């Protein structure tokens, strides 16, 4: 089976520190893969290597049949088809919600103002925030801001969506609205790689779960395999601690 | 007391000197406006150049650093002498034939560009890297991310210190007057040496103060408004 995203032997160092070690990962089209593991285990770095926000030191990454790690690729063209959403939303504070969603379609896809506006309003309607279109981000709750960030990524019609702990900075009562939106994306077949601490969500939406620790994928498999019958002692230990913390 | 009033605030001298000082003051305002517009544009360019990534533009970055170091460290009056006395003295056809006012504006621009570059740079660096990252991740190029995401935020943040530098620039137009442009300060000086009366200096000073106070209050207003906004964003 050919996969949409494929990592082979990916190693990334920050100075002396190896944050990713010899990572192999395949993600099929329309599949959802969740990355679990403690903070600092390399989940975010892995996501950022895929859209070249970080440069890998060794190994290859292929996205949609195109090797992205050979240095010759058009980075901006690659990023057009890969959306990423961050833990801290990173909305543009000087722009309204609507402008946040319209910026990249206008400047990168070259849509004219009316087309970009219509598409953005359509997206905002879909995420239930059409009435906030003219607000600035700091007037929105965290959950609303994160939904706008997802809409901003979706506005580029990405083939792949990377979600980097997008609920970790949210108040508990705001988590559900964001996860519901992500759930609706799985239903339309969006290919996604999700770094998350939400284990029950991961169990529900994943085709595959990968457990990372110290930059290594120790095991990967179906949610059942990883969350119920983990083989690796490290995975068991991690899950036991998650359970203890009541996040399972 | 009477003597002081007579020397510094004489009604007769006031009426006599005011027209000249006013016409001189218009030259101050003129120099200030042109220099400020040039400084805003050139300093932004230099600040952007200093921030460009990659080894290919290293010489450009170095040039920008040398420029700011040099002109931030040189007193304006020395630069003004060099421009107003020096450049005409070179007798180069292309650059030596302009009026003192033009050289004065050039001196002000060159010196204040160095200051303002640093102000812009501080603003650019104050925009968190995650903003640039978010822009780039959407497929925006380096230049687009700078133009649409980083600079609008950076410039908004540095407006108060920019206005502060412009208050300095307004006053420093008088330094140009000391070398050969008949602006308000020079008119006052001419009057003083002719009639041994300093009322003109007071008049010129009051005019400068009238010009800076609105700017100063506007700066205060902007700072206060931002504080309120930031506090509102925290709740």
Account of the 3D structure:
The complex is a heterodimer of chains A (248) and B (235). Chain A is of the alpha/beta class and 248 residues long. Chain A has one domain (5-244): 3-Layer(aba) Sandwich (Rossmann fold). Helices cover 38% and strands 24% of the residues of chain A. Chain A has nine helices and ten strands. Chain A has helices spanning 43-50, 75-80, 97-107, 113-126, 142-154, 172-187, 199-205, 223-228, 233-244, and strands spanning 5-14, 17-27, 32-36, 58-63, 66-67, 82-85, 160-164, 191-195, 208-213, 216-221. In chain A, the strands form two sheets. Chain A has a six-stranded mixed β-sheet, with helices on both faces. In chain A, helix 6 (172-187) links the parallel strand 7 (160-164) and strand 8. The longest helix of chain A has 16 residues, at 172-187. The relative contact order of chain A is 0.17. Chain B is flat and about 70 Å long. In chain B, helix 6 (129-137) crosses helix 7 (142-179) and helix 7 runs antiparallel to helix 9. In chain B, 86% of the residues lie in helices and 0% in strands. Chain B has one domain: MetI-like fold, CATH 1.10.3720.10. Chain B has 235 residues and is an all-alpha fold. Classes of the chains: A alpha/beta (248), B mainly alpha (235).
List keywords for this structure.
heterodimer; A: 248 residues; alpha/beta; Rossmann fold; six-stranded mixed β-sheet; four-stranded antiparallel β-sheet; 9 helices; 24% strand; B: 235 residues; mainly alpha; MetI-like fold; flat
Secondary-structure topology with pairs:
The complex is a heterodimer of chains A (248) and B (235).
Chain A: E1 5-14, E2 17-27, E3 32-36, H1 43-50, E4 58-63, E5 66-67, H2 75-80, E6 82-85, H3 97-107, H4 113-126, H5 142-154, E7 160-164, H6 172-187, E8 191-195, H7 199-205, E9 208-213, E10 216-221, H8 223-228, H9 233-244
Parallel strand pairs in A: 3-8, 3-9, 6-7, 7-8
Antiparallel strand pairs in A: 1-2, 1-4, 4-5, 9-10
Helix pairs in contact in A: 3-4, 3-5, 5-6
Chain B: H1 2-8, H2 11-51, H3 58-73, H4 76-90, H5 100-126, H6 129-137, H7 142-179, H8 184-195, H9 199-234
Helix pairs in contact in B: 2-3, 2-5, 2-7, 2-8, 2-9, 3-5, 4-5, 4-7, 5-7, 6-7, 7-9, 8-9
């Amino acid at each position: 089976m050919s996969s949409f995203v494929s990592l082979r032997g990916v190693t990334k160092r920050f100075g002396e520190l190896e944050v990713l070690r010899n990572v192999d990962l395949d993600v099929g089209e329309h599949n959802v893969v969740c990355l679990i593991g403690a903070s600092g285990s390399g989940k975010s770095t892995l996501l950022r290597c895929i859209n070249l926000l970080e440069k890998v030191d060794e190994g290859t990454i292929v996205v949609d049949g195109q090797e992205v790690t050979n240095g010759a690729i058009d980075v901006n063209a690659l990023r057009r088809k890969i959306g990423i959403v961050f833990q801290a939303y990173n909305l543009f504070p000087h722009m309204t919600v609507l402008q946040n969603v319209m910026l990249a379609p206008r400047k990168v896809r070259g849509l004219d103002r009316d087309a970009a506006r219509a598409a953005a309003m359509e997206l905002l309607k879909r995420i239930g925030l059409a009435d906030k279109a003219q607000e600035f981000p700091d007037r929105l709750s965290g959950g609303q801001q994160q939904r706008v960030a997802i809409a901003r990524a979706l506005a580029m019609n990405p083939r792949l969506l990377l979600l980097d702990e997008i609920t970790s900075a949210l108040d508990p009562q705001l988590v559900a609205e964001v996860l519901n939106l992500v759930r609706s994306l799985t239903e339309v077949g969006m290919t996604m790689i999700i770094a998350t601490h939400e284990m029950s969500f991961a169990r529900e939406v994943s085709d595959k779960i990968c457990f990372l620790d110290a930059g290594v994928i120790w095991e990967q498999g179906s949610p059942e395999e990883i969350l119920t019958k983990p083989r690796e002692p490290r995975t068991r230990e991690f899950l036991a601690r998650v359970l203890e913390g009541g996040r399972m | 007391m009477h003597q002081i009033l007579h020397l510094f605030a004489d009604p007769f001298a006031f009426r006599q000197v005011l027209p000249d000082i006013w016409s001189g003051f218009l030259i101050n305002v003129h120099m200030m406006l042109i220099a400020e517009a040039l400084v805003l544009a050139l300093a932004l360019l230099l600040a952007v150049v200093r921030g460009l990534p990659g080894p290919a533009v290293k010489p450009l970055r170095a040039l920008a650093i040398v420029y700011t170091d040099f002109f931030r460290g040189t007193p304006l009056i020395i630069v003004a002498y060099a421009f107003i006395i020096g450049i005409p003295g070179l007798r180069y056809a292309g650059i030596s034939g302009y009026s003192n006012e033009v050289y004065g504006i050039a001196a002000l621009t060159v010196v204040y560009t160095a200051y303002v570059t640093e102000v812009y740079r501080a603003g650019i660096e104050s925009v968190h890297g995650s903003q640039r990252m978010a822009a780039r991740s959407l497929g925006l190029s380096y230049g687009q991310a700078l133009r649409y995401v980083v600079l609008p935020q950076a410039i908004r943040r540095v407006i108060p210190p920019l206005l502060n530098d412009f208050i300095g620039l307004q006053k420093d137009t008088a330094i140009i007057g000391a070398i050969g442009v008949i602006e308000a300060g020079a008119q006052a000086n001419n009057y003083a040496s002719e009639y041994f009366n300093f009322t003109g200096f007071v008049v010129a000073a009051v005019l400068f103060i009238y010009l800076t106070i609105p700017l100063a209050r506007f700066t205060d207003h902007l700072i206060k408004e931002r504080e309120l906004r930031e506090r509102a964003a925290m709740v």
